[in-house]
Amino acid sequence: MITGKQKRVIPGTTMFDGDVARKGYALNKMCFSFNSAENRAAYLEDKEAYCDRYGLNEQQKKAALSLQVLDMLAAGGNAYYLAKLGGIFGLDMQDVGAQQTGMTKEAFKAKLVEAGK
Amino acid sequence: MAKIVGGINVTHVPYIGRAIANKLQQDPYWKPFFDGFPPVRQWLAKVKPDIAVVIYNDHGLNFFLDKMPTFAIGAAAEYNNADEGWGIPTLPPYQGDVDLSWHMIDSLIEEEFDMVTCQEMLVDHAFTIPLELFWPGQHPCPVRTVPICVNTVQFPLPKPARCFKFGQAIGRAIESWDSDARVVVIGTGGLSHQLDGQRAGFINKEFDLMFMEKLISDPLWVTRYSIPDLVELTGTQGVELINWLTARGALLGEVAKVHANYHVPISNTASGLLCMEAV
Ligand SMILES: [Fe+2]
Questions:
Q1: Catalytic residue (one of B12, B59, B103, B193)
Q2: Distance CA B149, CA B74 (A)
Q3: CB–CB of A35 and B60 under 8 A?
Q4: Do A115 and B264 lie within an 8 Å CB cutoff?
Q5: What are B46-83's pLDDT values in tens digits?
Q6: Domains of chain A: which residue ranges?
Q7: Lower CB count within 10 Å: N or C terminus of chain A?
Q8: d(CA B195, CA B187)
Q9: Do B265 and A73 count as a contact with CB atoms less than 8 A apart?
Q10: A56 — pLDDT class (breaks 50, 70, 90)
Q11: Which of the four pLDDT bands, split at 50, 70 and 90, describes residue A3?
């Protein structure tokens, strides 16, 4: 049994729980639609209209249009679905990692290599 | 009765699919990863499985947040891969084994693991890439398959102790199937990595190596941890290693290491490979 709601705090980390999943549903649903090439093309054609069609709120829309990953996470985005939006713009996981940590891509990649030593 | 010949756990990063398509196996970046596989392929050639039960997590190809099962199992004659949105080549369909699927469903639900059953199921890179690594370029894949999907997307996730017991129930289900089939159990995902947040790029080599070691000698060691513990220790996506634990549970009893490999990084991920057989 779970009593009360005590959340574990891990710095720089969000667990995608019910609260976040509720908040981010529209944004994540839009990203899920990008499995389809036709939908990816429709997004590129008119991004704002596409966001509106999926009912994104202003925070989600702004975050998605700016491609700022931390903002999308704050708006309830989930990494697995957001990756599909990033894919439209050819962003790989090192681009995304560098952006979120405020590093250059080269420095981020060097950090990964270092972690293996 | 069917026989479990052993288990293989492996990382499943999407970009491995692109590296295979671009034939980068000998590229200096990829070589330390791909060089792990020949001994596993030799072992597979020796133990000759007919069927692979693949324990993995879907990344938003078959399941979305509208319906998110904790444990789901395929019961289809064929499973299709499909576009995940990253321009990675889509692989040809995989043959299922409907008889084993339904036997497992009966057995698992009898053991109180109330599975979501899927007579149609798309399989994503977490299912296809490991098979492509074990049986490279063999289309159709030479084994029949049963996909088992564990939720690692939306918390709460099934806790490690539960995953281990789930794995044991999977093992008993396979071994109680009236068939002379030889079955390999595959667990995919991990090891430590985090794609999202200011802690993106987090890797924990020390924990990963300990985890691989303990999976052989003392798998219950992992069950002392909660899901938040594992997120802290291995990253928000490192927690996919519960699929490894589930696969280990299915091996029922003592195992020996056939082969292991560990290399950092592949994309943002610590890549691991662990092949085990019963002793
Ligand atoms: Fe994954």
A1: B193
A2: 8
A3: yes
A4: yes
A5: 999 999 999 999 999 999 999 999 999 999 999 999 99
A6: 18-90
A7: N
A8: 20
A9: no
A10: very high
A11: confident
Q: pTM for the whole thing? A: 0.98
What mean pLDDT is reported for chain B?
Answer: 97
A115 neighbourhood in chain B, CB within 8 Å: 201, 203, 205, 264-265, 270
Q: Shortest Cα distance from A68 to chain B (angstroms)?
A: 11
CATH number for domain A18-90, candidates 3.40.50.1100, 1.10.700.10, 1.20.1630.10, 3.40.47.10: 1.10.700.10
**Sorting pLDDT into bands at 50, 70 and 90, what band is B142?**
very high
Q: How far is residue B260's CA from residue B275's CA, in Å, rounded to a whole number?
A: 6
How many A from CA of B127 to the centre of ligand 1? 10
Task: Give A63: exposed, middle or buried? Use CB within 10 Å, 0-12, 13-18, 19+.
Answer: buried
Q: What band does A4 get if pLDDT is binned at 50, 70 and 90?
A: low
ipTM: 0.96
Instruction: Tell the CATH topology of B3-255.
Output: Protocatechuate 4,5-dioxygenase; Chain B (3.40.830)
Separation of CA B190 and ligand 1 centre (Å): 7
Number of C-alpha atoms within 13 angstroms, CB side, residue B257? Answer: 12
Domain-wise residue ranges, chain B:
3-255
Is residue B259 flagged as an active site residue?
Answer: no
From the candidates B59, B125, B139, B259, give the one annotated as an active-site residue: B125
